[in-house]
Design goal:
90 residues; alpha+beta; Ubiquitin-like (UB roll); 5-stranded mixed sheet; two-stranded antiparallel ribbon; 7 strands; 32% strand
Length: 90
């Protein structure tokens, strides 16, 4: 039996508008990579979300992902993921 992991995702600003929700949970096979989580979100919300998430900064808990490859970033169990689009005006 394969293990799964629940991950809570929070969308901000344009990401929230594209997803149609401020937050939601995902149950995915563990270990969960950021790339797999992002793909699951885009599959759940086809349309503009993929483009928006492509330009988002990402936080795992309070830690920024930065420029790391999403396929190499493992989302720790119990840590929320925040997708933050670029904000205008600081």
């Amino acid at each position: 039996m394969s293990e799964t992991q629940f991950t809570q995702v929070h969308y901000w600003a344009a990401a929230r508008a594209a997803a149609g929700t401020a937050s939601e949970g995902f149950e995915l096979p563990a270990p969960v990579t950021l790339a797999a989580l992002r793909a699951a979100a885009v599959d759940r919300h086809p349309g503009r979300l993929g483009d928006v998430l492509g330009v988002c900064s990402v936080l795992l808990g309070d830690q920024p992902v930065g420029t790391r490859d999403p396929g190499d970033v493992v989302v720790p169990a119990g840590v929320a993921v925040e997708f933050l689009p670029p904000f205008a005006g600081g």
